Structure formats: C-alpha cells, structure tokens
Amino acid sequence: MINSDTRNKSIVEKILAIATFVLGIFTLGSLIAALAISGAIASYLRNSISNNMNNYAQDDSAIAIIDNLQRTYQCCGVNLWLDWARVSLGTSNGISKDINS
Q1: Whole-number mean pLDDT of the chain?
Q2: What is the model's pTM?
Q3: What is the DSSP string of 21-46?
C-alpha cells in the first residue's frame, strides 16, 4: 500500500513538473511576442508621426492629427521639438496666412 501511494505521488509530481515546464515555455514565448509587438508598435507610431509632420504644411488631416497629438500628450515631435527643424513648412507667406485665418 505504501509503495502504491509513493508510486502515485511520483507520477503526479512528474506530471506537475512537465506541466510547469510547458507553462514556463508558453510564458517565455508570450514575453518574447509582447516585446516584439511593442517594438513594432513603437516603430509604427514613430513613422506615422514623422509622415504626418512631413505633410503638415500640405494636408489638413496631418495638421489635425499632429495638433491633436500635441494638445493631448503635450509633446512636440517624434523625439524632441528639434524634429521640426527637418520638416519643410513652406514659405513664410503660407504660414502667416494659415495662422491668421
């Protein structure tokens, strides 16, 4: 009877060990997938903001997106306000015209 209980306990321990190992593998896989997705989302957002900044002077949709982003999150560019130095905003006449209208 003791042998039978010991054998059953040993089988249960092996099953639990295997289940724990498999769960650990799935957890590690989930972590790797989450990190990959996080990096992809960050890259997508960087590219999207950069494209909208580059189209800011010509596209009303880009103006609305960037203005809303800046108001909501109080941010200035992709990384810093210096990102705007790389963006062509057109002539000063076009800018002053947009500001005054």
Answers
A1: 85
A2: 0.58
A3: HHHHHHHHHHHHHHHHHHHHHHHHHH
